[in-house]
Batch of 2 targets.
Target 1
Amino acid sequence: MSGLFDDLRDLYQEVILDHGRHPRNFRRLEDADATARGDNPMCGDRIELFLKRAPDGTIADAAFQGRGCAISTASASLMTEVVKGKTAEAAKELGAKFRELAMTGACPDCGAALAEDMERLAPLSGVHEFPARVKCATLAWHTLNAALDGTKEASSE
Amino acid sequence: MDGVAASAFDVARIRQDFPILSQPQARGRPLVFLDSGASAQKPRAVIEAMVRCMETAYANVHRGAYRLSELATDAYEAARAAAARFLNAADAREIVFTRNSTEAINLVAHAWGRGVMRPGQAVLISELEHHANIVPWQMLRDERGNELRVCRVTDSGEIDMEDLERKLADGRVGLVAVAHMSNVLGTVTPVERIVAAAHAHGAKVLLDGSQAAVHRRVDVQAIGCDFYCFTGHKLYGPTGIGVLWGRLEHLDRMPPFLGGGDMISSVSFETSEWAAVPAKFEAGTPPIIEAVGLHAAIDYVSAIGMGAIEAHERALVDHAMGALSEVPGLTLLGRAQDRGGVFAFALDTAHPHDLATLLDRVGIAVRAGRHCAEPLHARFGLDNGTTRASFGLYTTKEEVDILARALTEAREFFK
C-alpha cells in the first residue's frame, strides 16, 4: 500500500527507525574517563556521551544518554557502535568523513580503509537533502570530538 | 447571530488576499500554513501599502521641513492613531512603537522595572509565559534584586487563580506580567479577573497580547490593565514593528529606555531633557514603512471585523478539537475552557522534529520544539517539546482535516 510519506523512506530507513526506537549503548558509563555534553539549542536535542579508553588509548567502550529525534538518536547509537576499538585520531577522522556524508550525501575520498564503517553509517546519508536535519545527524559526532579533546561541551548550531 | 457572522466571513475570498497562499509549493501541493502563531502571512493590502509608502511618500519623520517628510510623519502618526483605536486606548500618545513584543516587555522591564519599581517589590509572572515575558524579569531580578514569582498553571492549562491570589497576598508584588493568550496551550487568560486581583493588592499589570490581539477584540480600557503589548508580524503586518500601550500617567513617570535622537527636547554635553510621551520612548529613526504596513494590517482586520474573525476561529477551534481528538496516540497540551487557535501536541510514536519533517514534505508548515516556552514544557513533562499547529484568519476546516489525516499516517510511519 502506498502511503503519504513513502518517499521519506530514504531519510527514515529501517535501520534509522530501529536505532531511533531502540538505541544501542543507551546507558551511563560509570567508569568513563571522558565525557561530553552536546546540545542542539534550536530543537532541544541533548546528548551526554561517555567514553572508556583502553590502556593502549583506543576507545574500549562508548555509551550515551539523552533525548532527541529519531535521526539524532540513531546517529548517536550507530556512532557508539562504530567507534569502539578505534584510536582517538581514527574516530575523529571517521567523524569528519561522516559529516561530509551527511552534508553532501557522498564521500568520494573515503577510501577502502573506511569503507566498512561508512557502510554502517550510510543509512544516515539521506539527511543531506534536509538541511535543517543535518545537525541532528552530526550532533553526536561533534560531542565525540568534544569528549576526545576534553572540551566537555559541544553545540551543533 | 452566528449566521450573520458566518455569512459575512468568506474564508475563500479572504485567502485570495494573501498571495503566498496560492504560491505553488514543492511537489505541487498547496501550502497548508499552520504556523501563524509564530508569524502570520501578509495580505496584499499590507504589501501594497508599504510599497506605496516607499514609492510615493517616504522620507524620515519629524525632521525635514519639506512635503515628503510631512507626508511620512502624517502616515507614521496615523498608524499610531490606528493602533490606539485598535486597542481602544483613550489617547494616541499612549501608543509607543517598538520593534516587537519582546522589545515592548523589555521597555517596561527597564523603564518601569528599574525606573519606577522599588528593589523590594516583586514581579509575578505565570508558568505559561513565552521566554520574552520571563527573561527580562530574570535580568531585572539579577540586576536589582526584584524577586520573581511564578504563578502556577493548572493541569488543564489555565492560570491557577488561587495561586495568583496567594502570591499577591503580601502586597509586595509591584507588577503582574502575564500573557493574554498562551502561544502553546491556546489558553485565553481571564485578564479582567487578573487585573482586579492585582490592583486589589497594589500591583500594576502588563499583558502580553502577542497572540490574543490577533484573535480577539482587545479593549484596554475595559480590561483595565496598565500596559499591553502586541507585535505587528503576527497581526498580518510586517516584522520590525510592535506596540506598547501604557497608561499616560505611567509612561510620564518612566525614564527613557534607549537614548538618541527624537527622544529629547534639548541636548547639551552636560544634560539632556526628555521629549514628551511617546517620543521619549522612540529613540532614533523609527520603523516608518513598518508602521504604514501595520496601519494597513489593522485596517484590514478591522474591515473584516475582529468579531467575525473570532467567530470563524471559534468554529475552527471546535472543529480542530474534534479532528485532533480522533488521531490515535495524540496528546493535546492544555484543555482550557476558553482557548484560541493554537494547538500543541505530542504524538506517541514520533518526535516533534521528525513529525515536522514529514508534514513539511506534504506542504504542511507546523512548528516543532518548545516554542520559546521551555519552562511550560517542563511543567507538563514534555522535555522533547511538542508540535504546534496555529491558525490564522485564513485557516480552513479542510486544512485542519488534512493535518489530522497526515498525523494519523505519520504515526503509522514511525510505529
Target 2
Amino acid sequence: MSTTIMPETQASTGRRVAVAPVTLWRVVCSEWIKLRSLRSTRITLLVSFVLMAGLGVLAAAIAAGGYSRLPAASRASFDAVNTTLTGYQFAQLAVGVLGVVVVSNEYSSGMIRATLAAVPRRLPVLWAKAGVFAVVTLVVMTAASLIAFAGGMAVLSSHHLQVSLTAPGAARAVLGAGLYLAVVGLLGVGLGALLRKTAGAIAAVVGLLLFLPLLSSLLGSWFKAHISPYLFSNAGAALLRVHQQAGSLSPWTGFAVMCGYAVAALAAAALVLRRRDA
Amino acid sequence: MIEVHDLVKRYGGKTAVNGLTFTVQPGVVTGFLGPNGAGKSTTMRLIVGLDRPTAGRVSVNGKSYDQWAAPLAEVGVLLEAKAIHPGLSAYQYLHALAATHGIGTRRVREVLDMTGLASVADKRAGGFSLGMGQRLGIAAALLADPEALILDEPVNGLDIEGVRWVRHLLKDLAREGRTILVSSHLMSEMAQTADHLIVIGRGELIADTSVTEFIQRATVSNVRVRSPEGSRLRDLIAGPDVTVSSDEIGVLTVTGMTSDQVGTIAAEGGIILYELVPQASLEEAFLQLTQDTVEYRAPETSAELAGAGRNPA
C-alpha cells in the first residue's frame, strides 16, 4: 500500500489535470466503457445472438420437413423469410432484460450516484445509455438476423422454398429484425430508468412482450380486432413479415407504433430522472 | 468554497435537514460532525445535486453544482464506499467516470497509484473489502483534481495506516488551498484531522466553530490517575461535585477536579501516583452538545426502560 502523498503539492493555481466540459458525446463514451466492460453484458448479448441466428436455422429445418404435409392454404401463406427470423421471439426477451439491467444495475449497486455526480444535468446519462445500447443491439442483432436468413434459406433451398434477399419485402424483414430488437432494447432501458428496480422493470418488459398479446388473444374478437394490432410486440412483428396477416398493421406503421411505446417509456423516464432524488 | 443557505430537505413527512446555513472555507479541513441520522449524508447529497432540496440553496465555488461545465473539477465526492457495479474493475470504473470529463487514462493510473490500488486495478470490485472500496471512492473523488472535496465517513473500514494516509492527504489538499468537507460521527477522529467543525443534529446547526475553540469550550474534563492506593485516594478526593469511576484496576477517572487539585491532595495524603493525566474529553463535550438531538438512542439503563413502560404516553 502506498502512503505517499499526492505528488502535485503545487496544484492549486495551475490546473495539472486536463479536464474538459461534460458533453453528450463524452457521456456516450463513458457508457460505452461501462457496457463493454461488463462480462454479464457480453454474455447476454452473445446469448441473444445465438438465439436469433441459431433458432432461425432450426425453424427452417422443421418447416421444410413438415411443408409437404401442409394444406394448400397454409402453403400459400408460408412466409419463408419470417420463418428464418423465428429466433427474434426468444432474443427479444434477452435484449429487453439486458436493456433493463443496463440501468437498474446502477441503482442496485449505488453507482448511479457517482454517474449523476459526474453528469449532474442527468438527462445526457439516459440518452447515452439508450443510444449506446440501441446501437450495439442493432449491430449485433442485424448481423444475427442476416446469418439466420442465410442459414435458414440454405436449409429451405433443399426443398426449393428459398427466397432471395432481393425479393419484395425480404430485405425489409431481415433488417427489420435488427430494428425491432433495438427498439425492444430501448423499451428495456426506458422501463429500467423509470422503475429503477430490476425485478419490476423486467416484469413490465415481459408483460409487454408476451403477456399482453396473449391476454388480448383470449379476450375475444373485439379485442383481437381493435387492441391486439396496437400492442407493442404485435405492432412491431409486422415489420418482420413478408406475407402480412389479416388485421395486422402495415410494416412501417406497426414499427412506428412500436417506437411510440419506447419513446413514451424513455420520456417518462426522463421526467422522473430529472425530478426524483437519486 | 461551499455555501449552504437555509437548506431544507423533507422526505415525505420526515425532515432530514432543517434550515441549515453554513459556509465551508477553502484552505482548511472542515469536519462535518453529528450523530447517526443527523442529516450529514443528506446535506452532502444536496450539495452535489443528487437530492433536490425542498427549500434553500447550495452553491459550490459560486455556482450551483449542476451549472458547472466540468463539475468533477469543482467538487470530488465520496458518498459511500463500494457504490460500484460488482462486475467492473477499479480501473474500468474510474475510466468510465474519467471519460465524462475527457480525462485521460494516465490520470486514472495516477489516482490508482495514489490510493494504493494499482495492484488490484484490474480485479472485479465485487471482491473488494470495505477499506479498498473507500480507497476507490477517494480515487474517484480525486480524479479531476477538484477544487473542493466532499467525503462522507472516508475512514470507515480503513486500517490504521489508511486512516493516517487519509488524514495526511486531507491536510495536504487543504494546504494547497482546496475546500475540504469531511464527515464523521467520531469526535476523536475529527479532532485529529479537522481545523474547523460544523456540528449538526436532527438536521439543524449546533455549532460552527474552530476545533481549538471547541476544545476550549469543552467544559467536561477528566483526570486519569494511576495509583496503587486507589481506594484511599478515592476517599480523599470525594466531594459533591466530584465523580470518580474506575474501568480498570488501579486506574481512576476523576471528573470535576483539575489534575493540580488531585496531585495536591495525593501529596498531602502521602499517596503514590504512577500517572496523572488531564484529559479534555471531546467525546464527552460532543455528546453533551448533541444529547438532545440524537436520532437513534439505546435506553441508558434498564430502570429507564421500566420507567418508560409505566409512564402513560
